[in-house]
């Protein structure tokens, strides 16, 4: 009898496997996520933070390399002592109280990490300012964080000086990471740090912190206006730290970070290194020519990516040593299917773990099966323990479609829809600092049943018949270029500062061979003024980071608008920048000429064939 039971069980398992070959992977992944959830719950009960984990790691292996930067090596003990020094400079300044926020305005360098660790040690949090922002955006991001102290890199002092009068008016104290500072009302930092004690700080300085307290504020572009500060609690930081482990990273790895630390993905790599007690190879910024040299130099085994990085690497000339490296795992998002195939074919059997997530979100997906092009899988187990849905969405009105009872309608297999995830105690949404209106816009009520509450990701995805999930597009007035989300209204506000431009309708257009969408602006000229191409170029160069500058301009005599005077973009997006289909004057941002030049058919062909680099 037992034999027949075993036979039937084996046959049942075989049938199940052939019907769903990924069943066991699905079960294993959900099991790992539940184990991670249980671990974070335990940490919440004992109030064990990522800083506590770092302190324990330092005690376990004080002399193990923690940060490799250029030719410098910083051990876990070095990081402990340097973060103590940074903390003391801020503490002894007399400027901070428990729970205060300090804004960090710097790029990838080890002191970024010492500052964050030090701030947590004195019971404070950090606001990670994008080092590319300037002027109004810089002031906005600083203001909405509530920070009254700013620490900036030496190379960013010009950007600080530009807004210094406004900072002083708002009673913001400014530190520059130098030994000496000649600017009045600006303090040096490095000299004070070198003189500070490296002894451990009293633990009662952070006695008020819980895992629900903010650990950092990371900025994300929204559908309107300036960037928004997403609150990252210490519990959410644990979720980020555990994410690479779900993708396959282990305690023997060396992780390479060339993505900005002020972005979630870059900081996630740092947090995961603390969690695993491993070494970080840190680079100031991505370099296509030095990427693999760095991987060999530091014996890197795990890399992080965005789609553009992988495309750049695949577009470099082939070399005999392309497969001469120890990289086994790549974790990131935004890689195209064709680039995915090219990367594996050229650089060897690297496991690519594409993921989906949002800085402020409460839900994530990982393509643990390695299906090329997918961002994850949809299984009944995953939905059971991590409730989410893809619902029908009207892209014209930018609202979910609802049935006669007022509930949202789930999208069919293969149909693009809005991804939403349930908000609960286990999957909270903390909202945006100082922006209740935008926070509420991300909450959807009565989605699948009356009284429920879901997070609106703002992203369109589709689930195919085989249950693999694919990213489709972003909702609202944003476009993604060079790995950065750009709010179109912010770009439009900058462009219309020019006297010659009366109105601007900004959107993103697809460019063959490139991830994301390049910025394009349809503009309406002020009556009696001509289009000054050189002046427009200079203006956007001064006020917008490179990724946000419109690559194409389209001069229109009038705009199509909705009944509420909202610019219509669908037709413009569909027409793109093709002079064969558009009769309006078109211009292309030419960085060599430092001007916007007429976009001819020949130029269009060179762009679409990849001969003109974007």
From TrEMBL:
Keyword Lipid metabolism: yes
A GO molecular-function descriptor: long-chain fatty acid transmembrane transporter activity
Domain spans labelled AMP-dependent synthetase/ligase: 58-366
Pfam families per UniProt: AMP-binding (PF00501), AMP-binding_C (PF13193)
Gene Ontology BP annotations: long-chain fatty acid import into cell
Alphabetical keyword list: Cell membrane, Fatty acid metabolism, Ligase, Lipid metabolism, Lipid transport, Membrane, Nucleotide-binding, Transmembrane, Transmembrane helix, Transport
GO CC term, one of those recorded: plasma membrane
Presence of keyword S-adenosyl-L-methionine: no
Domain AMP-binding enzyme C-terminal intervals: 490-566
Annotated InterPro entries: AMP-bd_C, AMP-bd_C_sf, AMP-binding_CS, AMP-dep_synth/lig_dom, ANL_N_sf
Domain of life: Eukaryota
Topology of the protein relative to the lipid bilayer: Multi-pass membrane protein
PROSITE patterns in UniProt: AMP_BINDING
Localisation per UniProt entry: Cell membrane
EC number: 6.2.1.3
UniProt enzyme class: ligase
Catalytic activity: a very long-chain fatty acid + ATP + CoA = a very long-chain fatty acyl-CoA + AMP + diphosphate; tetracosanoate + ATP + CoA = tetracosanoyl-CoA + AMP + diphosphate; a long-chain fatty acid + ATP + CoA = a long-chain fatty acyl-CoA + AMP + diphosphate
Family statement drawn from the similarity comment of this UniProt entry: Belongs to the ATP-dependent AMP-binding enzyme family.
Protein name per its UniProtKB record: long-chain-fatty-acid--CoA ligase
Organism: Gymnodraco acuticeps
Lineage start: Eukaryota, Metazoa, Chordata, Craniata, Vertebrata
Gene (name only): LOC117538966
